[in-house]
């Protein structure tokens, strides 16, 4: 079967669609060909895949070929089992007939002969030429078609259909399509079973000596090709995948074979070109060469994936294949041309990029699929870029490459090529060697900005000079004595390359140019070629010469021919990687490649683009915290910004350089950064530059409890600031924000330093002025300040360590509060020292207890304002003393201003000035008592009450108010206001009671005295001044009958004094003398009390003296009511009942009981008497006069009647109108009030005018 490989390849190239054979029995094909071919390709063909699942094929390609065509007749029977996929999948038999005899004798036998082959899928198309108007012909045609159906149809299959040439028949074409598809499906299923059986047989023989991979390949690809022609691409792809796995297993298990890849042009990858080489060229015994065959299989897989519209999978598979195949090439690297592996990988990546990009349509792909595609594209560009850089480094362009972290990481991990023998210098290359040596000598590393001395990053896994000489045929591996002559004073390998990371100045290049070795050691036949090591320049020339023989692509070779061409190609690959990564998931990779583009732009003077690229890279490295990488790129950005005169950006870069870890730069370099910062900040910048210096200037609160203040209190907050500057730096301003921890609506508040701070390296203690804050808990927010035009800000972070150390820096946001402002609370309390009443109209000490509540009252000022009826005796000083809660002993304040019995007893006399009182320093933190000398003034005499009706005066009458306003705090910002109520009262309350009435008219008047103060009252004397109408019996001085004076009335107790009186003449002897209406009780007394308890001895009376205090109270004595002057009576109604709306007369009769001459003139009663009617207006309407005078004769027994007409307004029991005599006292009227209490008023009588007839 392997002999058919060449024929199999030619058949595949000429067969690309399914064949449908046409057996033209009646020469009908020319007339129906156009109609048949219009049905191609077949629409929505329902086929079965390898797993017997139904699959719809949108456009199934097919081709109609006559059985007499040479393409079908040239096939030999022996080929059928191998190339069965190209045989017809359906056979259409075209037949027509005019009558039944012709059908029976000619057509039917011929059809029997045609369809007797069981391997064919056939059906008959009867073509009717009868015209529709010819009924006889049409009927005959129907009979003939019916006979065909009977002869050739079966129960399982309908194999006949009819086509009318003279009339339209749409159903025929649908029937034709369905029969063709059914035939193709049946044929395809049968052939798939055949191939599977053959493949199974070969698979069972895999481990036998007679097994041939070529035979297995032909069967497997025949099946895959048949699936591909049927547009079952998934099944075809699965066959190629299985074929690849089988081949790899065979290769790994078989003996060593020829790998391939040694022909001209093999360096160009053929991943997507299955026809790059014929399989007959790569066949080897019963198998294929691995190099070509694996690329062929991948090309076939890629072709199917493109047909399935899956370019993303092509890219993904391609990248994995390139990585895997590159490892395979490494195994045969000593057999392949120099750097063949690197060249093949580059061409494979570029070919895969171009092909997949042209097939990818982003508008029809989801966002995730698109990002994954661009990620793979970026990986392909990145891989080809690294391989391209390796080739460029080998030929001497490494000196011009940017030693960036990305390039170093990629190239330092990429191994050198490993040829069997390192290429030798060509015979005529002396000129090139000298040019390379000159290029090495003239190259010098670019000086870093700020004169930063950093070890260059490596671009090689090991020293190229040693690696190349080690691989020379006559040198042993790793023997340095074979590499270097004794005259070579080289102690370090990197110095040999002239661009070492340890020797950036390049002084060792002189030894490389020594005349001793400058001769042309370049001939392959030269005896020196193996006598001494190759110089670096010779290695570059030899590698370049070898690459010209390896690379067959002239464009690729041109990209390595000169440095500008190399940079152009390098820029193209780098930009492709960056652009694709930016559109993928891996945007950070794109940013890194932007930095490589920026390095090329910087080299060629495009500083603007370079700065933008470097900014992206620096932002990435800073965000990830890669400070080592940032230290490599940030100086380049700063240099670009300085060249572009971007002062703000340059200032920002300098600050960021200072913010990096101290170990990345020397002290000298860091001081240079600081000098640039100061110079730029105080330079000519027009606008301020805001910068975040969180890692350069950090801060925290001091250890210990937070500062606690009260609402409205200012203060000073101590903050520790750590400076990352290498030297002292002066700030123009420094402020810090405070943030409330639990209040979302509370904004941040700035607190500023009152002095211009100078920060030293390390730890600094800063004092900030704290204005009054709202209640809450506060943490440190943001540190802000200004250095010239630089406005910096810093957030607090902490990285641990000892806070007391000078090099402590903080990077973790603190949650511990530094300030607690308490909610509004009572910082001080002022209460009265005593709640008992004090003496009114006397100088008394009012005690005020001032109690600070966890707050200092040092320097407090008390404003005192007394209310009406109260005054402060300014002649006396205010006293302040310690307050004792448990037992209180008075402090002696007489004599000196301050008397100290012990350390806890202090009394000081203070002067009140303009209503203000300043607290002494000793009273700031202790409870004190203020004693105010006050006098409550009340000019109204006390009034006694009767024992029968013992009503007393209201307590409010003796209440006085003292308004207090206390200003305290450091800035007197705290204000406490309170109004204290002080109760003043008379020492006694007096009531009278007639104890007994003697037969002789003498009255025993008992005067009860109630003590109203919490003090002992000592009565020295008492007398009673009676009102007219009463006289004393016995003594004429008004003293009581018995003398028990002096006696003491205890607090809250009472005493009684008895006076003997009788009724006397109420007329005054002197008419001009004022007549006393009430009696007056006079008491002389003394008081013994404590000012801490209540009433006490007044300040203007010396203690121990007799009396000195007088009390007066009025007593209202009433004569017995035995003979009133007037009598008033209510006369009965004239009608039996009262009704609403009917007038009624109300009558009152007044009678004089005494003669007018016997009535005292003080009562003002004469013959004209004033009367007044009082009635509820809701119940009564008065028809007469409500107020008037009535004449009553002066003689005893005189009478007068007052009549008033009234109209009841409501029914029910109501109060009647009342008669009043305003000019006569109630005690002089008998039978008062006159009249009934309630009267009954009936509803009005019903009226017929309000009746409605039924």
UniProtKB/TrEMBL annotation:
Name the UniProt record assigns to this protein: Trafficking protein particle complex II-specific subunit 130 homolog
Q: Does the keyword Magnesium apply?
A: no
Domain TRAPPC10/Trs130 C-terminal, chain residue ranges per copy: 1137-1219
UniProt keywords, alphabetically: Golgi apparatus, Transport
A Pfam match: TRAPPC10_1st
Kindly list the places in or outside the cell where this protein is found, as annotated in its UniProt entry: Golgi apparatus
The processes (GO biological process) annotated in the record are:
early endosome to Golgi transport; intra-Golgi vesicle-mediated transport
Gene Ontology CC: one annotated term: cytosol
Q: Which residues form the TRAPPC10/Trs130 N-terminal domain?
A: 17-315
């Amino acid at each position: 079967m392997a002999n058919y490989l060449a024929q199999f390849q030619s058949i595949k190239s000429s067969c690309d669609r399914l064949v449908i054979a046409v057996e033209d029995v009646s020469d009908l094909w020319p007339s129906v060909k156009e109609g048949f071919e219009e049905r191609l390709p077949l629409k929505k063909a329902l086929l079965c895949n390898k797993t017997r699942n139904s699959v719809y094929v949108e456009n199934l390609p097919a081709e109609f070929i006559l059985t007499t065509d040479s393409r079908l007749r040239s096939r030999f029977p022996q080929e059928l089992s191998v190339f069965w996929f190209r045989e017809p999948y359906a056979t259409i038999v075209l037949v027509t007939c005019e009558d039944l005899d012709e059908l029976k004798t000619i057509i039917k036998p011929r059809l029997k002969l045609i369809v007797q082959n069981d391997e064919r899928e056939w059906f008959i198309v009867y073509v009717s030429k009868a015209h529709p108007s010819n009924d006889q012909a049409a009927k005959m045609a129907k009979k003939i078609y019916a006979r065909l159906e009977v002869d050739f149809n079966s129960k399982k299959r309908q194999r006949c259909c009819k086509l009318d040439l003279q009339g339209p028949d749409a159903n025929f074409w649908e029937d034709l399509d369905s029969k063709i598809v059914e035939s193709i499906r049946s044929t395809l299923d049968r052939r798939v079973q055949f191939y599977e059986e053959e493949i199974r047989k070969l698979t069972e023989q895999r481990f036998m000596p007679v097994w041939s991979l070529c035979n297995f390949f032909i069967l497997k690809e025949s099946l895959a090709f048949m699936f591909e022609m049927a547009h079952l691409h998934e099944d075809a792809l699965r066959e190629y995948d299985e074929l690849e796995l089988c081949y790899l297993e065979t290769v790994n298990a078989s003996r060593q074979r020829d790998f391939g890849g040694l022909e001209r042009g093999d360096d160009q990858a053929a991943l997507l070109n299955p026809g790059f080489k014929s399989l007959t060229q790569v066949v080897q015994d019963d198998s294929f060469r691995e190099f070509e065959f694996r690329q062929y299989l991948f090309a076939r897989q890629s072709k199917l994936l493109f047909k399935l519209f899956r370019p993303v999978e092509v890219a993904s598979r391609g990248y994995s294949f390139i990585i895997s195949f590159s490892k395979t090439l490494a195994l045969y690297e000593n057999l392949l041309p120099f750097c063949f592996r690197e060249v093949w990988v580059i061409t494979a990546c570029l070919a895969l990029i171009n092909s997949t990009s042209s097939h990818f349509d982003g508008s029809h792909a989801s966002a995730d699929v698109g990002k994954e595609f661009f990620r793979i594209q970026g990986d392909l560009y990145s891989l080809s870029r690294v391989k391209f850089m390796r080739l460029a480094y080998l030929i001497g362009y490494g000196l011009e490459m940017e030693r960036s972290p990305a390039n170093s990481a990629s190239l330092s991990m990429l191994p050198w090529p490993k040829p069997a023998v390192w290429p030798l210098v060509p015979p005529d290359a002396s000129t090139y060697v000298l040019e390379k040596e000159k290029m090495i000598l003239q190259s010098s590393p670019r000086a870093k900005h700020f004169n930063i001395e950093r070890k260059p990053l490596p671009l090689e896994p090991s020293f190229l000079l040693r690696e190349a000489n080690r691989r020379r045929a006559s040198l042993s591996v790793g023997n340095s004595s074979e590499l270097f002559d004794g005259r070579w004073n080289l102690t370090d390998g990197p110095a040999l390359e002239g661009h070492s990371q340890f020797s950036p100045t390049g002084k060792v290049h002189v030894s490389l140019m020594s005349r001793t070795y400058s001769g042309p050691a370049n001939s392959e036949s030269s005896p020196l070629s193996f006598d001494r090591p190759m110089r670096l320049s010779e290695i570059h020339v030899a590698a370049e010469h070898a690459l010209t023989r390896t690379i067959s692509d002239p464009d690729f070779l041109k990209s390595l021919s000169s440095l500008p061409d190399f940079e152009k190609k390098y820029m193209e690959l780098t930009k492709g990687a960056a652009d694709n990564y930016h559109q993928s998931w891996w945007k950070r990779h794109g940013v890194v490649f932007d930095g490589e583009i920026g390095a090329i732009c910087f080299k060629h003077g495009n500083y603007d683009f370079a700065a933008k690229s470097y900014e992206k890279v620096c932002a990435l490295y800073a965000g990830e915290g890669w400070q080592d990488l940032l230290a490599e790129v940030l100086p380049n950005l700063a240099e670009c910004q300085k060249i572009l005169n971007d002062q703000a950006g340059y200032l920002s870069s300098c600050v960021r350089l200072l913010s990096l870890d101290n170990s990345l730069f020397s002290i000298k370099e860091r001081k240079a950064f600081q000098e640039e910062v100061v110079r730029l900040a105080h330079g000519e910048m027009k606008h301020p530059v805001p910068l975040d210096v969180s890692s350069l200037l950090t801060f925290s609160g001091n250890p210990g409890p937070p500062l606690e203040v009260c609402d409205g209190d200012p203060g000073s907050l101590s903050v520790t600031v750590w400076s990352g500057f290498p030297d002292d730096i002066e700030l123009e301003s420094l402020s810090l924000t405070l943030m409330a921890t639990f209040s979302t609506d509370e904004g941040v508040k700035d607190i500023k330093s009152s002095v211009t701070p100078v920060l030293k390296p390390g730890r600094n203690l800063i004092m900030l002025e704290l204005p009054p804050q709202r209640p809450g808990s506060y943490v440190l927010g943001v540190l802000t300040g200004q250095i010239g035009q630089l406005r910096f800000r810093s957030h607090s972070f902490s990285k641990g360590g000892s806070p007391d150390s000078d090099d402590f820096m903080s990077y973790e946001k603190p949650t511990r509060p530094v300030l607690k402002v308490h909610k509004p609370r009572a910082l001080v309390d002022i209460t009265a020292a005593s709640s008992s009443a004090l003496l009114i109209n006397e100088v008394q000490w009012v005690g005020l207890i001032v109690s600070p509540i966890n707050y200092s009252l040092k320097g407090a000022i008390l404003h005192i304002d007394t209310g009406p009826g109260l005054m402060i005796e300014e002649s006396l000083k205010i006293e302040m003393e310690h307050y004792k809660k448990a037992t209180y002993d008075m402090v002696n304040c007489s004599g000196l201003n301050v008397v100290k019995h012990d350390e806890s007893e202090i009394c000081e006399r203070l002067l009140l000035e303009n209503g203000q009182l300043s607290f002494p320093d000793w009273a700031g933190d202790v409870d004190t008592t203020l004693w105010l000398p006050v006098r409550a003034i009340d000019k109204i005499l006390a009034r006694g009450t009767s024992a029968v009706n013992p009503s007393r005066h209201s307590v409010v009458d003796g209440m006085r108010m003292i308004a207090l306003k206390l200003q305290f705090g450091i800035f007197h910002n705290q204000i406490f206001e309170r109004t204290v109520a002080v109760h003043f009262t008379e020492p006694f309350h007096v009531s009278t009671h007639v104890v007994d009435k003697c037969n002789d008219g003498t009255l025993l008047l008992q005067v009860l005295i109630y003590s109203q103060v919490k003090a002992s009252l000592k009565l020295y004397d008492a007398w009673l001044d009676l009102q007219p109408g009463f006289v004393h019996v016995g003594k004429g001085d008004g003293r009581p009958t018995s003398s028990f004076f002096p006696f003491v009335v205890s607090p809250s107790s009472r005493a009684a004094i008895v006076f003997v009186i009788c009724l006397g003449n109420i007329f005054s002897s002197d008419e001009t003398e004022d007549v006393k209406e009430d009696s007056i009780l006079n008491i002389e007394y003394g008081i013994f009390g404590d000012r801490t308890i209540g009433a006490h001895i007044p300040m203007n009376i010396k203690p121990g003296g007799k009396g000195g205090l007088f009390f007066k109270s009025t007593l209202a004595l009433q004569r017995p009511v035995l003979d009133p002057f007037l009598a008033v009576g209510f006369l009965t109604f004239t009608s039996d009942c009262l009704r609403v709306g009917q007038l009624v007369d109300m009558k009152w009769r007044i009678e004089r009981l005494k003669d007018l001459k016997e009535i005292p003139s003080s009562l003002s009663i004469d013959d004209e008497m004033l009367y007044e009617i009082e009635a509820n207006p809701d119940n009564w309407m008065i028809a007469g006069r409500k107020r008037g005078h009535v004449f009553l004769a002066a003689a005893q027994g005189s009478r007068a009647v007052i009549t008033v007409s009234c109209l009841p307004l409501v029914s029910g029991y109501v109060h009647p109108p009342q008669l009043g005599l305003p000019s006569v006292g109630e005690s002089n009227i008998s039978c008062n009030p006159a009249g009934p209490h309630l009267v009954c008023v009936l509803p009005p009588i019903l009226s017929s005018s309000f009746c409605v007839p039924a």
